[in-house]
Amino acid sequence: MYRQLKKNIFKAKILGRLPFSEKTKRDALYSGMTWPNNAAFATVISFDIDYMEDEAALTPVIELLQNNDCPASFACIGAMVEQRSGCYRLLPELGYEIINHSMNHPYHRVIYPDDRWMNLSEEKIKTEIINCHDIIRTKLGYTCKGFRTPHFEFRGDIIPVLKELNYTYDSSGFYSEKEIAGSLPPLIDGFLEIPIYREASSYRCVREQHLTDIQWSSKLEDILQYEASIGGIASFYFDPQDIPARPWVLQKLIKTARENNAWLATYAEVAGHTAVL
Ligand SMILES: [Zn+2]
Question: Which is more confidently placed, 275 or 222?
Answer without folding.
Answer: 222
